[in-house]
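Final report, Chapter 2: Outcomes

The project's central promise was a pipeline that accepts a single protein chain and returns its three-dimensional structure in a standardized token representation, suitable for archiving and comparison. That pipeline is now operational. To close this chapter, we reproduce one record exactly as it appears in the project archive, with the input sequence first and the structure output second.
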Amino acid sequence: MTTPQAIEPLSGLDDADAARRLATDGPNILAREQQRGLLALVGDVLREPMFVLLLACSAIYFVLGDLHESLILIGCVALVLTITIVQTHRTERAVAALRDMTSPRALVVRGGVARRIAGAEVVRGDLALLHEGDRVPADGVLLEATSLAVDESLLSGESVPVDKRADPEGQGPDTQVFAGSLVVKGHGMARISATGARSEIGKIGASLADLSGGTSRVQREIGRLVRIFGVLGGLCCGLIVLFYGLARGEWLSGLLAGITLAMSLLPEEFPLVLTVFLALGAWRMSQRNVLTRRIPALESLGAATALCVDKTGTLTVNRMTLIELRAGEQVWQAERDQPLPDPLRPLAEYAALASQREAIDPMDAACQRFCHERVGDDERLHHGWQLEREYPLTPALLAVAQAWRTPEGAVVAAKGAPEAIAELCRLDEAARAAVNAAVMAMTATGQRVLAVARADYDGEPRASLTDFAFTWLGLLGLHDPPRAEVPAALARCREAGLRVIMITGDAPGTAQAIAAKVGLSGQRIATGRELAELDDAALIARLHGVEVCARVLPAQKLRIVRALQAAGETVAMTGDGVNDAPALKAAQIGVAMGGRGTDVAREAAAIVLTRDDFTDLVAAVAEGRRIFANLRKALGFIVAVHVPIAGLALVPLLFGLPMVFHPVHVVFLELIIDPACSVVFEAEPAEPDAMRRPPRPADAPLLDRRMLLACLAQGATVLAACLAVLYLGHVRLGLTLPAAQSVMFATLILADLGLILTHRAQNTSWLASLRTPNRALRWVMLGTLVLLAAALTIPGMRTLFHFEAPPYASVFAWTLVGPLCVLLFEAVTRLWARRRPAGQIKQAPIHRPRAA
């Protein structure tokens, strides 16, 4: 315990001075990994397998003496390279913006006003206010310290917290705080002395945070698919080379054909699509007040089945107001708009004395505000009293207290749960019964009820609150109204199959009243005391169907999370305090409150709500479902579109025909596939019924066997259409092979556009999907048709693509075969699915928690 040093009120820097110091010293950030420069980015992209294969093809054409074809491929590489670099740079900028938004914050005094700023904006001379759970933003000297203890293990490696004391001269390390250390107890004020690289942690080059996190399940699944297709492409390439070399003696031509086949099989879009979807999805969520600290957490959002949310500030507006005071027979209620009776003034006075003067907690702020407004005179505000000791809340005693040195002696003021204060005051059974009756009456209207007591003492403050002889003063009723939009959001959760559990430290009566107002069932309610007496198996059974948990301690949240997970739930848990961190880390989706949350909670969480608003969490779940659904559509399209590409590269070779599919054709298709995957599907809005479906299982694969087979069948249908057009055009109609190739290629391109529309409309009709606005789709389709027309009509382009001018009168009719086959395939599969007996239809699994 340290004693606060009395100092004159400080106003801190003004904005102009702070701006000058920021310009002089630079931002308060540590050296971080440098963003890749253009050359480094180009080098990384050129090492991708697709570009290596394209460059290999260009080299083979050069060796074969076809300089024109070699230069054309080099130009194609430059074009695709430019598109890839633009997409990668866009993704990296989105991630960098998220990193900046989720960086630590600091509470500083500027111009006499406490304000929350980004940690990077802290400058020398700032007055930083430090509270339990905060990361110290920069090195500083303590001007005030009340029971302040700091964890400096990041610097020293020593895990034992260090007690701190105030000394404006900064004599000794125990009077200083250092950037990156964690306030584990008490509060204080420090004058910043060093920032950024000049701080102690900056000198040793330590890093505080990492946005990306580890490899997720979906990333591992994508990696496995890429490896499978990569090995398949390598084997096919080797077989084709051996076939050409041994059967025909054309090793270089065989290598060119093999590389073309490998390019057609290589799904290099998979990793790109995953990266773009998650990064841009996180950026979109940041525009809706939801910051993603660990991007892979987006994968779990769409699978969430249980939302465990705090009441205060999440379901309510977090504006505490004292609306009722009771002391014996005396009752004051705000709605009657009457002056505060004199017998109740000590109750208000000591409620304020038990609260921090620089209040951060909403209840402390409400008590201080009420005392200033309703009591008002300087004598009862006690500005000259000196704080001697603070007694924080503990699991064993749900009360806080502050000991004060007064001109006449010493006094301690305590407030907390009525049952805890009654225990401190040693009330008899009759008095406790009267207190319980009053508490029941107050909580029935949704009030949070606190009791207040006082005690006099001589000498030094006692070690424990139980060592004082407290006198009961009365009850406080605080009101925090529910957010108006919460009932609708809860109804939306029910439609989406989401279970919402309200967790609060309030008394059961208060919790039930608030639950009834927002639309939760308070009939099955569990209390913290009850949960503490249960073993793990019994806890799982007890939580079944529960929607309200009252009188819960922060440390009990971890047990609740693990019990729900053991019951098969995918849990999102909200929290804001130091003790919430283990539960936030254990939950599949830890959600920290950005407005009132501590830095420890933010660091433990995967997601931060900047407005502390429940509706933002529901919107985040909806966005998670949109991202996962669109990711499935994009990957399904990639699989389907690669089947005809690979088939057209392979089938003619198996029948001894010349190549009808060249590297330049693969490059053209990449110009369609890449934007379609990373732009069109990413920008696809959520389907209208996305939040009327049950959550998907957390372990559901992106491409299950049924969907993979359907996509392969789609691709096979397009391949069959293209081969039929090639055969009929060349054999039946007598077109030259290059002319038939041009018709076949147009058929393939239009079929691929049909595949885009089909995968957009997985759960709707084509017409409905076309009515759904998607600007990126319009640009991709228009650009594709323009390039296709140029390839068919411009002589130089025809030469580039190994085409000849087809009979244009019949081209249009023939090329419609591709999209019509796609449409017919989709119609047949949907009709077959409807006509199957209901028991044979494989429905999406619906999550149901296991009954204990």
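Archive annotation: The two ends are 47 Å apart (CA to CA).
This record, like all others produced under the grant, will remain available to the consortium after the project formally closes.
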